[in-house]
Amino acid sequence: MRKFFFALLVALTFAACSCDPVFHGMTTKQKEDYAKAIAGEYKGTYVIVYNGGGSDTKAVKKEGVQMTVTDLTMHSVCFHDYPVSLLSNVVEDRALAEALAGAPNVDFLVDYRFYSLQDNGDVNWGFEPAAIPLTLHYGGTDHHLMLKLNSQTYFLLTKASLDAGKPFASHGVFQFTVDGIYEGDTLLQSFDGIWQDNGTEYLTYFQVGEDKAH
Predict the structure, then answer these.
(1) Please, are residues 72 and 214 in contact by the beta-carbon 8 Å criterion?
(2) Distance from CA of residue 38 to its chain's centroid?
(3) 19: number of Cβ within 10 Å
């Protein structure tokens, strides 16, 4: 069922491209203009879906959160007040899980890039792989960890949405997976169940609200 769900997501993502649009590279000036058009603060909702490897998939919603999109100078998006503590529900190491359960919410940055411009003014863009640094104390010592994230989806910025001042109206849900928890180069736990029938999975969706934050 989970494989079908994600196959459907991919199908819906590319359904809008069935008209075989013509893609072009973008000049620096075009990238700067589009970056300025999307820069700002946006209200939103986190929906976090996780499964510890069984059939019981759970979803937790956190409303009233915010993301900040910068212009091309920093070309990044900051997702605010992200509840890393929920990851404790699928972590196998008990000491690490307990430390995570008590961790405060964090802000994290993800770099974005523009990939191509279509003839109609629509732009394909997406996020680079990112990481959330965490310092947790357990087992009598501090552990400096990294939660490695990946976005497996490209997004479409339509010219109509940009002209209306609502850049993400046409595609307002951003998806991230947690690939794994690392301490230095050591992988403590992998979360690759999205492609397996009985693997552990941990997904985050950020649903952008209709209006910018004020």
Answers:
(1) no
(2) 17
(3) 7
Copy the structure tokens of residue 48: 């976090």
Q: Is the separation of the CB atoms in 73 and 109 below 8 Å?
A: no
pLDDT tens readout for residues 17-72:
445 667 788 999 999 999 999 999 999 999 999 887 666 788 999 999 999 999 98
Residues 6+ apart with CB under 8 A from 188: 93, 96, 145, 180, 181, 182
SS3 label, residue 195: helix
Residue 123 contacts residue 155 (beta carbons within 8 Å) = no
Cβ atoms of 26 and 116 closer than 8 Å: yes
Letter for the amino acid at 212? K
Place of tokens 């929920």: 86
For residue 118 the two structure tokens come to 């279509």
The H or E element containing residue 57 is: none
Residues 6+ apart with CB under 8 A from 67: 41, 42, 44, 77, 78, 79, 80, 206, 208
> Could you tell me where the DSSP H helices lie in the chain?
2-15, 28-38, 94-101, 159-163
